[in-house]
Amino acid sequence: MRKRWEIAIAVLLAIVILVVLVFRLLSSVAEGSLGVEGALPGRKASNCTMVNSQNLCGCWLRDGSQEYWNYSNDGTCTTWDEADDLGKEESNLVFVWRLNDSRLTHIFHGQLGNQSVPKVYTVKSISPKAMVWVDDYGTEYSFTKTDH
Amino acid sequence: MKKGWKIALISLGSLLGLVVVVVGIALWLIFTPSQLTSIVNRVAGNFVTCETHFGRVNLTLFKTFPDVGLRIDEVEIVNPIEGADVGQVAYIDNLTIGLDLKKYLKEGEIVVHQVLIDELNAYLYIDSLGNSNFDIFPHSDEEDTTESHFSLDSLPNIDLRKLRISNSGITFVNVKGDLYAGVQDIDLNIVGNLSNGTVDADVDLDVDRCAVRPIADSAAPNTRLHGVKMSLKAKGNLDEVEGKLKMRVANGQYNNLINERLQASKHDLLTLNVPFRADLQQMLFTLLDDSRLKVDDYALNLEGDVRLNPLWMDVEVGTDGEWQIEPLLAIVPEQFLGWKKGMDLGGKVALNAKVASIENDTAGNLPMVNAVVKLSNGRFYLPKSLPYKVDRINADLAARIDLAKKTPWSATINSFKAHTRSTDVSLTGKVDDLLGDMHIDAALRGRLPLADVAPMLPQSLPLVANGNADLDVKANFLLSQLKTKAFDRMHASGTFKFSHLDVTYDSIHATAPTLDVALQLPARQHSGKMADAHVKGSDLQLVMSGIEAHMEQPDINIGINNMMSEQLAAAFEIACGETEANIDSMLVSLGALELKGNMRMDSTQDNPLRKFNPVADIDMHSAVFYMPNLPDAVRLSQFTFQYDQSGCRIKNADVRIGHSDFQLYGNVDNLEQWLSHEAMLKADLNFTSNYTDVDQLMDLFSGMGSDKDTLEQMRQEDNVPKEANPFIVPKDVDITLHTHIRRSVAFGNDLNDVAGALTVNDGTAILDQIGFVCKAATMQLTALYRSPRPNNLFVALDFHLLDIRIDELLDMIPTVDTLVPMLAAFNGNANFHLAAETYLDARYQPKMSTLLGSAAISGKDLVVMDDNSIAQIAKLMQFKNWKDEDNKIRIDSLDVELTCFRREIEVYPFLINIGKYQLCASGKHNLSGACNYHVELLKNPLLAKVGVDVRGTLSSPKITLGEVRYADLYRPERQGVVEKRTLEMKRMIKEALESNVR
After folding, report:
1. Is the pLDDT of residue B847 over 80?
2. CA pair distance B46, B860, nearest whole angstrom
């Protein structure tokens, strides 16, 4: 009698373990298919919005600051913050931008060595006058188009 | 008795008188005037070929007694030729000829003893063809082919007891020779005889006036003499006649050479008084001791021999004492005084000369003159060439003048002394070839104020000099060399001992209490140079192109070219003891200086290096540079360098600045162009140091090369606080220092064995892979620093620290704690790689909006400090027995990559192995401390997977269970695209950082 119980419990555990493993496997597959380019593992990208790069080109002022981002249609961008006593021509942050769907990638190259700093955001919304990004940690960045 | 003698004498006299009367009456009766006139007219045709007229011819006894006289009145000789004003050649109002009657009666020989001519008027004319109206004597039909050898011996005996011409005049017109001469009021008396080789003559000539001039130009200079008197006495054998010639011309004119002053003189114009001895056979005259020629009141003593035909002389001529120059010059014709215009000349002069013809000279025995001129108490003033008076001139000069020009004329200055203001000079020497290219060999000694010399120098010479100089100079040169400034071919040597010297040459100004200059021309020491100058003195002060120098004991050897030109060139060797110099605002003190090289001056240039074009080897010892913008002096125990137009080669510079010492060697280029703002200053130097205080050096050299006013304006525009003093990278320079520093301090850190290249390029400083050891860790730094504005300083770093203790890393670079806050929880050694760039403000605080960076940290066998957050995480993850026996948490390895953008730091997923547990962590935080991290347990004995989120602030995190995210990140067989890309980015960041490690 006792032997039967032991066998039943072992089978049950095996079934449970099997179910758990299958569930995790399926869960993992599902998570992998949702990942988007540039997103950190385990982090969900924000909802995808198809963005026209022409809307991006131009100069943007980050709301509540003197931080400017000037996108050129040659694929480069310059950003500077006049609150730090800095002008556009003096900016060291000149980088390459790339837009895939709503994934906006900035790749900065330092002036020394091979330093390369990638930053990836998701364009949450964009209009001719306003734009909102969000990074993979959920921080939002809102901008207003400016003629600066 | 007496009465008897008386009666006898009276009787004899009466008898003689009767005889004379009887003879006279007889002659009167026999030789009547008409008969005599007829005879003379008849006989005259035998003697002359022209027409003659005789008025009345009488015999006379008393006028010519004891000779028989033939008196002829109104003698007229007529021979008209074409062109002559009159046909009459001569007219004599009264001609008396005394004949030796006894000789005639005894021997039939006509001997004339007396000729008395009264009121002779002669008109002698030669036409343009040479025909004359006085060619009236008959010629022989046979041509005389015998050679004419005149000899006094061949002359017949002459016993001329009286020849007198009185109240006469002669006019001579020579058209062919363009000469008119007229002599008026002639009175001539000659008494003499020549017989048997002896002569006894007495001649007196008195001419009231005479004139000589050209015919064609009546306004041309002519000669007029008034009151001419001459007296000649001669007696003795023909070969030894003694006599005396006296001559006097009261007044007159000779080719306009007699000026008004001389004409108005109370003295006779010319007086000649010559006692002589003569050999008339040889026509040799010896002027005896008292011979004297006097013009106005100036007498020349003559002594010597003169031979006529051909002319030859050996005569000594001397002034009768000293002549005053001023009145002497007053009687010199104006045309000879052009050189004296504006000149004041005075003093006394004495002349002694020997005038001697050279024997057998084919040029006509022209004489050679050897003269000695002595000048005493002379004075000279010519303002246009010398603006001060020269007086106390005493000179003893000798000259040799060869009128035949067979030997060069020369002059010897036996002595010449002169004084002007405070100047005394003496000159001796010799000048050869006076008429040609004068060769001057002279010695000048004197003491003179330099201000007196300036007017004698070329105006183009930019020289102003004051002070005194004692000269002792010898020179040997040709006048042509002096005129053409061919100083390289002239010879000179001497010393100039200057006192209280103050000289300005172009932009160079020098002063010295005493300075000795030895000059040698041409240069011996400096081959190829025009002159050597050796300068020794004390306390020499030198100012040139912003440089002020003070040399205690200068010893300068210079070889100079183009000394009198604006394009001065020189080779120099300078040795100085203690020297101080002020260059612009920099004070330089030298223990010793040796300088060797050359320079070529170009006054048209402003750039000092182009102006002087120096080529130099310079060796300084114990040099100290005090610069106004450097609080500390720059001390060089030795500084050896070479400079030329191609650049500056520093052989060795042992430098101490503040706390730092270093040795420099290498090249500095473009100095010349840099000074003209045409190019950057380039330097490639090796920098070896035992100790370098980088912070202090940066303070010292901050802003060098930038305009101070511009810098201050930029500070004001940037609102830079006074206490902030950011390092401004020198501009306009491109300097590379290859460093090797044993010990240094930088930003408060002790750095050892620093090696690498530091480049400063037009406002940008670059440290290129500088390696060093700090806190026992090996480090490598590549950095870039720009200072476009005092409040906008750009810095970029590529920094590698290998095997450094983490706590020391955080102590050395506190910013790392900001970037990786969890690092403070670890203890042990790690490798740290950082690449970052940012702008800094004037206080070196980063402008976070410009911060961009990436870092990689890796370590093994680390100990985790007891940390509350870690304890919370361990509790949530149900760690069991995860601490060692000593209660320490040990981790096998740590491998972190992170990026920094503005105020945000993002840490890429990294693994931590703690005993049997393996964790993965990632997340971000910002500089305000807000964080969002995730820690996940990947391995544990229970195979449980637990995730923890760390949010809130770093100082007070909120730690909660979270989702599991990284289960497959480090399981290659299960990695998806995202996992692979994430790890690829980690790898890319790490490799990029580590790739620059040497």
Report:
1. yes
2. 164
Instruction: Report the C-alpha gap between B970 and B862 in whole angstroms.
Output: 21
**Residue A37, pLDDT above cutoff 50:** no
- Do B977 and B884 touch, CB atoms closer than 8 A? no
User: How confident is the model at residue B741, as a pLDDT?
Assistant: 92
Cα B468 to Cα B114: distance, rounded to the nearest angstrom? 81
The residues facing B353 across adjacent strands are B317, B371
Has residue A28 got a pLDDT over 50? Answer: no
pTM over 0.80: no
Helix (H, G, I), strand (E, B) or coil at B578: coil
CA–CA gap between residue B739 and residue B756 (Å, rounded):
5
pLDDT for residue A36 is more than 50: no
CB contact under 8 A, A83 and B849: yes
d(CA B98, CA B100): 7
Among B173-182, B603-612, B624-633, name the one with the lowest average pLDDT: B624-633
Residue of A nearest to B923 (CA): A137
**Hey, what are B728's tokens?**
């401004």
Cis peptide before B522 (omega within 30 of 0): yes
Q: What is the 8-class DSSP label of residue A12?
A: H
Around Cβ B893, how many Cβ atoms within 10 Å? 13
Structural contact between residues B229 and B210, judged by C-beta atoms closer than 8 angstroms: no
Give the C-alpha separation, B526 to B534, whole Å: 11
- What's the gap in Å between the CA of B855 and the closest CA on chain A? 9
User: What is the overall mean pLDDT for chain B?
Assistant: 84
Looking at the DSSP bridge assignments, the partners of residue B191 are B202
Distance separating alpha carbons of residues B564 and B488, to the nearest angstrom: 11
* B901/A117 CB distance under 8 A: yes
pLDDT for residue A47 is more than 60? no
By three-state DSSP, how is residue B832 classified? strand
> Is residue B794 within 8 Å of residue A92, measured between CB atoms?
yes
Interchain CB distance below 8 Å, B839 and A90: yes
Contact A46, A120 (CB under 8 A): no
d(CA B461, CA B566): 7
How far is residue B974 CA from its own chain's centroid?
A: 96
Distances (CA, A) of A96 to A76, A79, B34, B86, B795: 5, 11, 159, 131, 21
The residue assigned the tokens 């109104």 is: B74
pLDDT digits (tens, 9 = 90+) for B249-259: 999 988 788 88
- Helix, strand or coil, per DSSP, at residue B989: helix
Using a CB-CB cut-off of 8 Å, the residues of chain B touching A114 are 992, 995-996
Inspect the interface and report whether the beta carbons of B978 and A32 lie closer than 8 Å: yes
Inter-chain residue contact A84 with B839, CB threshold 8 Å: yes
How far apart, in Å, do the first and last CA atoms of chain B sit? 172
User: What is the full DSSP assignment across B205-255?
Assistant: EEEEEEEEE-SS-TTS--EEEEEEEEEEEEEEETTEEEEEEEEEEEEEEET
Classify the C-alpha dihedral B977-B978-B983-B989 as positive or negative: positive
Please tell me the distance from the alpha carbon of residue B174 to that of residue A11, in angstroms, as a whole number. Answer: 177
Mark out chain A residues that contact chain B at CB-CB < 8 A: 28, 32, 35, 37-43, 67, 80-81, 83-86, 90-93, 108, 110-119, 137-138
The Cα B481–Cα B439 span in angstroms is 9
Which residues of chain B make contact with A115, given a CB cutoff of 8 A? 798, 835, 837, 852-854, 992-993
Per-residue pLDDT band at B3 (split at 50, 70, 90):
low
Q: What's the first-to-final CA gap in chain A, in angstroms?
A: 86
> What local confidence, expressed as pLDDT, does residue B404 receive?
76
Q: Percentage helix, strand, coil, to 5, in chain A?
A: 30, 35, 35
Which residue in chain A is spatially nearest to B922 when comparing CA positions?
A: A40
Tell me the shortest Cα–Cα distance from B767 to chain A, in angstroms: 11
